[in-house]
Amino acid sequence: MSKILKKEHFIKIVVAIVAILFIVRLCLPQVNESASSEVPADSLESAPLIAAVSDSLTPSQGEACEAVVTGRSSGLLVLKELQPRLDFSRRHRIRSVSSYKTCFPDVQEVQFPAALANGVAAVQNRPEAEHRKKELLYVGMNPYYQIDPTMNRSIPYLVPKASHLLQHIGRRFMDSLAVKGVPLHKMIVTSVLRTEEDVRRLRRINGNASEQSCHRFGTTFDISYNRYHTVSPPDEPARRAVRNDSLKFILSEVLRDVRAEGLCYVKYEVKQGCFHITVR
Q1: Beta strands 185-191; 145-147: pairing state
Q2: How does DSSP classify residue 17?
Q3: Single pTM value for the model
């Protein structure tokens, strides 16, 4: 009889505990939320670095987006909010590509037909470019890349498809830096749309410059592989230095994947120190 009583008491105690836990969960839902608020590491690897922005930015919009990357905006997901969530013990390794020449072999003969098919009619000079803005998008300011301030042989305009590609590459580059635990840097764009007048001037000082340049159609841009812009929020100490080679390795991984997805052609330019890219 005593054994039966003990068993009944045990069952009553278990039922009482379950009932108490159920009541606590109903009355204090935040307890349950806090237990499940941790983000799985796998989901962080594909989490966007910064909230999406429009593919085309005017100069005034660009100033607002610049604030996002430097940490002056509290309304968007920026580095300050992303870094604490990254599991750096599981960061991806920097691998680069097997061979720049092999992975990025798309010469002029390959890129030119794509530029001709996807681009606009060649622009004669810069005044004419000002009247072609219905066909071209301004790409001079963007949170994911920086236009080279010394760029004087081309102007920051691209066709919409190429503008989207450039931003897509810049965003994936920053995402890769984040998941690899590397301080944020912007890639630097060194050449964009060239007018016929720009091409003639360039050929006077560079005999290797092509008269049939893909840059004339607004489909092509160059990204430097040996220069980058460090992103340092003004209210924080300067970020640690990162070797340009390391950043080049990461950028090459991104371009290899984007090219493999059939989005663009890429040529590794040795003398110019850039990746020459045409949208497909």
Answers
A1: parallel
A2: H
A3: 0.68
Which 3 state secondary structure label does DSSP give 141? strand
How far is the C-alpha of 256 from the C-alpha of 263, rounded, in Å? Answer: 11
Is residue 251 within 8 Å of 173, Cβ to Cβ? yes
Q: What is the pLDDT of residues 263-274, one digit of tens each?
A: 999 999 998 899
DSSP-assigned letter for residue 105: B
- Nearest one of 52, 55, 45 to 175, comparing CA atoms: 45
**151-165 pLDDT, tens per residue?**
988 999 999 999 999
CB proximity list for 262: less than 8 A, separation 6 or greater: 280
Nearest to 242 by CA among 227, 224, 223, 222: 227
Query: How far is the C-alpha of 156 from the C-alpha of 193, rounded, in Å?
Result: 6
Let me know how long the chain is: 280
Nearest-5° angle of CA 261, CA 267, CA 269? 150
Largest CA distance in the chain: 108
